[in-house]
């Protein structure tokens, strides 16, 4: 069995204050590229799990989500391969075929389970890094250890169950995982 780091996309890997469907607007956050390289060198698969309700709300299409993901991969580099999972559904959408709840939509752990099955992951050895409570809830439900990337307006004590760790930067999240790996 393999271990992975599950990564929220928006405001964890890339800067995004809203729905993003334009690959030209993709900007990696500080330390992300180097941090991903380090996590990969520790032997982790890197799995991006992202809600993309903008598809359901008609702001962009699934092909745009895939173009954004291609751009992220291009910026990170091919030597640090990423696996992308996204949920285009939202219960308050305007595009009928996407307007519903779905087991992949965080805080549900569906994307985690799908990745675990496809990649042969041991979820108890996996971590999730995200900036929202729903990321922590999804990760915890899947049996992963959790790291909340604390951003203005996000508080660890507001989570249903406290994250295992709270950090202020992507680099700090990588350090937490590196320390846990070295302690075995």
Keywords, separated by commas or semicolons:
184 residues, alpha/beta, Rossmann fold, 2 domains, 32% helix
CATH architecture of the largest domain: 3-Layer(aba) Sandwich
On the 0 to 100 scale, the average pLDDT is 94
Structural class: alpha/beta
Q: Within the largest sheet, what's the order of strands?
A: 3-2-1-4-5-6
Q: How many domains make up the 3D coordinates?
A: 2
Q: In the CATH scheme, what's the topology name of the largest domain? A: Rossmann fold
Largest sheet: 6 strands, parallel
What is the ordering of alpha helices and beta strands?
EHEHEHEHEEH
Number of E strands:
6
Please count the helical segments. 5
The gross shape turns out to be: globular
Radius of gyration: 15 Å
Q: Assign a percent range to the helix content.
A: 25-40%
Termini Cα gap: 16 Å
CATH superfamily of the largest domain, please? HAD superfamily/HAD-like
CATH class of the largest domain: Alpha Beta
Explain this structure.
This protein has two domains: 94 residues, HAD superfamily/HAD-like (Rossmann fold, 3-Layer(aba) Sandwich); 49 residues, no CATH class. Helix 1 runs parallel beside helix 5. A six-stranded parallel beta sheet has the order 3-2-1-4-5-6, sandwiched between helices. The two termini are 16 Å apart. The protein is 32% helix and 15% strand. The mean pLDDT is 94.
Layout of strands and helices, then pairs:
Elements: E1 4-7, H1 32-41, E2 45-51, H2 62-76, E3 83-87, H3 110-119, E4 127-130, H4 133-142, E5 145-149, E6 165-167, H5 170-183
Parallel strand pairs: 1-2, 1-4, 2-3, 4-5, 5-6
Helix pairs in contact: 1-5
